[in-house]
Amino acid sequence: MKNIFYTLFLTLALFSCSDEILDINSEMDLTTGNYFMTESDMEAAINGVYAALPDIYNIAWMFGDFASDNTYYALNISRGDVEDEEQIANHNWVRANPNIAEKFRASYVLIARANQAIEAFNIGAEQNRFDSSFSGPKEAEAKFLRALIYFDLVQYFGEIPLVTVPASSFIETRQPAATEAEIYSLIKEDLAFAVSSLPSKGTQEKGRATKEAAYTLLGNVHLVLGEWSQAESALNNVIGAAGLGLASNYSDAFDPANKNGIESIFEAQYLEGNQGYASSFVYDWLPVPLSVETNARILGVSNPQEDNNRQAFNLPSPEILAAFDQENDDRYSASIQWTEIENSANYPVEQGDAPDHPFVSKFLHPHANWGQADDNWPVYRYAEAKLLMAEALFRQNSSSPQALQHVNDIRLRAGLEALNSLTEEHLLNERRLELAFEAKRYLDLKRFGKLTNVMQQMGENIRSNPQSYYFPPGTNPPSGTLTNIITDFEIPTAEAALNPNID
Predict the structure, then answer these.
(1) Among candidates 204, 158, 199, 198, which has minimal Cα distance to 178?
(2) Phi-psi bin for 276: left (phi > 0), alpha (psi -120 to 50), beta?
(3) Measured in whole angstroms, how far is the alpha carbon of residue 16 from the centre of its chain?
(4) CA torsion sign, 76 to 77 to 83 to 88?
C-alpha cells in the first residue's frame, strides 16, 4: 500500500498544473474504497498487519531486558568502536540511536496497516460488502494489534502521535504528539471492540488474536493505570478459560513443537526456513568468539560456522544470576546456559583459557540451518495472566489468598516452595524470574517505581568490578554508565525532523 500511495502522490505532483486533469477520476487509481473489495482482500490486509509483528519483536529484548538489570553486553575490543546497542545497556543513548528509530518505525508500520484495514472495513460496512460474521472478528484482530502496539509505545515514549486513519496527504502524516490519556482512551476503545468480537482460543485459527488475548491486554492496561478492580474484571475472562493453563514443565512453553499451545495467549509468529520468516534473535545473544564445534553443539544446525566478528549482547547479568535459586528453580536451567569461548584479543592465549560465559537459551532450540530458527516470541503467556491477576488482587487486598495462590501455582511449577505471604517485592521478583528475557523487566521496574534506583545500583556494581560484567582485563565501562537513568524514550531525531509538530 505504501507503493500505491507513492504512485498517487507522484501523479498529483506531475499534473498539478492542470485543474482539468485533476478533475478526472481514473478508474485505474487504487484507493481504500476500491481496492479492498472482497473477503480475500481483507484477509490479505489483516495478514499484512500480523506480518509487521516480527520486525517489532526482533528487537523487543533490547528495550525490555537490555535496558534493565537483567542483561548486559560482553565488550569485544576487536570491534574498535562503540556499538549503538551499548548506549541502551548503559542508559546513555542519544535521540538518533538507530535501534530506537527502528522500534518507532516498525511500530508505526503496523499501526498504518491496521488503520488501512479498519478504514476498509468502515467503507465496506457502508456499502454492505462483507457479512458481519466475517468483518467483525477480522476488524477486531486489527484493533487488537493496534492497541497492543500503541500500549507498548505509550509505555516507552509517553506522548506520541496518535494516528487512527490512513493519511491522504503528506501533511496529514505530521501529527502532533497526543497526551497519554488520549492514547489510552483509544487503546481501551479498540479493546472494547476486540473483546466483544474476537473468537475464543478454542475456535480461533492458531496464531491469531483471541478474546482471551484481548482481555489479557486490557487487564495489563488497567494494571498500568492503577485501575485494580477493572484489571481483575478483565482477567477473570482469562483465568480458567478453556484451552488455557500452565504447561506441565516450564521449558515446554517455549518449545517450537508447542507453538500456540496451552500456555500461549498470544505469540509473534516465526517460521524456520529460507522464506524470510525465521527468527534469529538468539544469535545476537551468543557470546563470542565461538568455534565451529561449539556452535554446532549449541545450535544443532547442520552448517555451523565460526562466530567471532561481532559484539555479544543480552548476556545474563550478575544480578539476574544471583536472583535465581540456581539449585532448585527449573526456570534457571530452562533460561540460561554456560559455554566456553575461544581465546581472542579479549583473552589472549598466554593469559590462559578464556572464562566461560552465560547466555540466554530460553528461545534456543535445534534448527536445520544457520540463522533460520523456528522460535516464536511470547507476547502473553498464561503464567503472566496469573501474575497480572495476582497483582490486581494484591493491590486491593494485600492478604488476598487468591493472589497468593496464583503466585504459588507458578512457583510450584518451577520446583520452588510455596510462599506463606505476599509482598510487592515478591510480585516484582516473581515476574522477573518467570518472564526472564521476555522483554518485561524495564517496564516492570518503571511501573513499580524502582527503575532509577535499581539501575544506578547496577552502575555502581559495574564500575567496582567490570570483569564481572564481561569487560576483558584492563578495560572499563564508558564514563556515565548507568548514572543518569532514562525513564522515557524520546521520539527519534529522524521522525522529529520530518514532523514540525514534534519537538
Answers:
(1) 158
(2) left
(3) 43
(4) positive
